[in-house]
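FORM 7B: Structural annotation worksheet

SECTION A. Query
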Amino acid sequence: MNPTSDTVTVFYHMPKSGGTSLGGILRRNYPPEAIVECGPDTHAFVAEMATWPPERLAAIRLLQGHFPFGLHTMLPRPARCFTLLRDPVERVISYYYHARRDPGHYLHRLIHDNDWSLEALLESRLALMMNDGQVRLLSAVWGEAPFDGVDEGLLATAAENLRAYAVNLANGALLWSYQMYGESAYDSWPVVSETKNVVMFRTKSVYSFHATLGLDDAELFCPGDHDIACGSCANWNPGNYNAPAAANTVTSADTEQWNEQHYVDGDNTIESIDEIFLKYPQRRTFYALNLDTGAHLPAPILWTGGGGRLGIAPVVNETTGNVYVLARTKYSRRDADYFCRKWVDLVRLTFDGSQGTFHFLPCQGGVHCPDSWLLHLIGDETTVLSLAGDRLFGSGWFHTGSVSVANGDYFAVSNWDGPYDDPEGATGSGGDSAAPASIANGRVFVKQHASNSGLITIVTAFRKQ
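SECTION B. Predicted structure
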């Protein structure tokens, strides 16, 4: 340990694993102003830390506490992370008796009011941290998996270090690796464009999904004048940011859309999506890497997705090499006068050898696609993209349908006809359990909710007339 080192020491303290004594030793080796420790409310601590400015995060030399893996990716300095593990059965027994003794423990009153034994508490299925708690924290799943919901996949996730690797299939030799930010790669898969010589990864944000959406929106519309909440600054006027006329193709700094993505200067004010990632690299969840070298091609793709899931994976047309993905932008074609941006844009992503740039798809209804809210793919729930020919299909919580990447023609196969703020999920295709569309013989097969309750799921086939 070196308190003057540029590296941050991060102790992921598993509850009842023998880490309290070690935490005390660590504390004695760092000045108080360089130590940050998680309090009893882990959720509140993680949410608060997400709002800290870079200079406060940069002052940390020791970060320790009961928090899920991935918090170190919020730090601007390199981190040395470690933990202590304990036999799972012994840890559960110790956890129970600690909760029984400590009046401040959240399970204490529950145990005494019901006179529960250890067995009775486990049978109640209420104590998630007594059900594979170490795997929950190290896989960053935490409370998202139900009781008995931890499986071998999550165990493998807990062991990963969130690096992208390329391996020679002929001899197994490592070609390159690249360190990414985020809690984990969760259930994602790499997407390859051989035509563009690029492989793309999505990672799970270290922030809560509401915090991620709120922070990115605020940086776009009111940099330096906001907190973590949606609508928390004075310049709350998203209607001023409909798509500029030159929206189809972005080729240079002559267009507003290019500047919104790529403008970079030397001051400390965020004026583009690129500057968000330069100031807060831990908020990047989309990675495009050169297939041959692993070199990072930064793309201005902000996070979209539902709670506990990853951002939307891109799709590739290998004939043209075009890459399509959902993107969030203040200069929006398929959105007007709505904030915090649930609505997102379907875009075409191009690479010039050093970076990625996105371009809006064409609109049939003019620059602002005025009637396209009839097919909305929202950015705060899971949406899955599929591609067949020039038809880009999106299946998600609010709508399911297709847009032509050639001319902007669109149709919805599940469509909520009321105002866009009416109950979501009424006719969508599953939210966090959304599945890709299948296209065969001129028909689209999608999973749909059969009622507003969302309790009945059916598979439906559609044919465009």
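SECTION C. Observations
Residues 88-158 form one domain. The mean pLDDT is 77.

SECTION D. Sign-off
Analyst initials: ____
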